[in-house]
Amino acid sequence: MTELAPAHPLAPAWLQVPADPAALDxxxxxxxxxRDDTGCVTVDSVPxxxxxxRHGSPSYVVSxxxxxxxxxxxxxxxEAALNPLGVELEVYYASKALLNTAVARWATEEGLNIDTASxxxxxxxxxxxxxxxxxxxxxxxxxxxxxxRALEVGVGRIVVDSLAEIELVARLARDRGxxxxxxxxxxxxxxxxxxxxxxxxxxxxxxxxxxxxxxxGEDSPALVAVAACVDASDALDLRGLHCxxxxxxxxxxxxxxxxxxxxxLRETVAERWDVTLPEIxxxxxxxxxxxxxxxxxxxxxxxxxxxxxxxxxxxSSDLPAPHLSFEPGRFIAGPSGCTVYTVGTVKTVxxxxxxxxxxxxVDGGMSDNARPVLYDADYTAVLANRVSEETxxxxxxxxxxxxxxxxxxxxxxxxxxxxxxxxxxxxxxxxYCWSLSSNYNxxxxxxxxxxxxxxxxxxxxxxxxLTDLLARDTGV
Length: 476
Hints:
alpha/beta, Lyase, Ornithine Decarboxylase, Chain A, domain 1, TIM Barrel, 476 residues, 21 strands, globular, 2 domains
């Protein structure tokens, strides 16, 4: 029986000493995880030791079943909650969270469209065979080349972010003799409770056009943008309004407030220009649990909470209900993935008299997960290749980079006998880990290993080699 260690003075208040350090907390270790008879962590019944032996370490590991279940579950939950309100619904997978051709196919096969934020993401979606009409193009600073490519292939919507972009899209569309389907991104001024860098609806940030006038008595930037689109109606098909209030949001109230303000703008547009905008996109940002401190909601509960808020907004309007869309990314991809690392150096340092911290180094780090250094993000980890009876010790899991901030897991209790060669699994790395990865210190990026529902494993993005890294160096 593992001895229960006393709470460590350096541990955050939310982190409890585990009664069973081998247990997989279902808050973060969702249904694809278990331990087999040998104590090894499995992903959809495949031991991570087998994955590491076959595909290398570190590796991103994605459960195809979980990704599909979460994509389909989001769509079905929101359809069930909102269709009774007379609202037709579309769900766009926010591909910036995790994108490759396999993931794009999984999402579209589960009834989702694809939201892209660059010409590169657009190229991946097209390479996956996604119908252009099911693709949206976002971005606050799209190039003329990106916009022209979107018009060439016929994407379903271009979300414009500035007056300059409206003029550019109109010119490009006229040159092609077509009308571009556009939505205007607005900032509704809703302050979601999230990190500053992932909050996207307050005024002091780069995205969208404000609903508030610069000077009293003037039209808001959002209304000025609508006027510009209406004036360019020969080249622009104004489909609707878009907003996004941030990321890692657990409550429905922010979405309700945003909807109220965006729908009010829709009313103003109808009154002034006799134009009924057919579409509203409320963005994404639905949160997931990274540690036991987070309180995730079931998707059905999120949708059920939002339904009466939207019903109230719709009832106060004389306009027909718009076609509504959402853009989940992290919610789908995050819990679908984990990272498997191999332990290297383990050392204990004295922080103050009588207080020590153990550092557990792994074979990856900030190059494969930049979120801790970018956002102060917290993660957890477990010893994955075996079960230990040793007393858990407060540990900091760190990477191998020449950087003191190279932290993978800031605080976690791991068994006292964790040693070189052991495997650790860090869950909920399916979103914004591979997407934000780099070659810092010239480390090759890990591959992405997909576990199929039948237990087969395959690399859907291959591991980089040193040859790959040198390929662009013209001096070689």
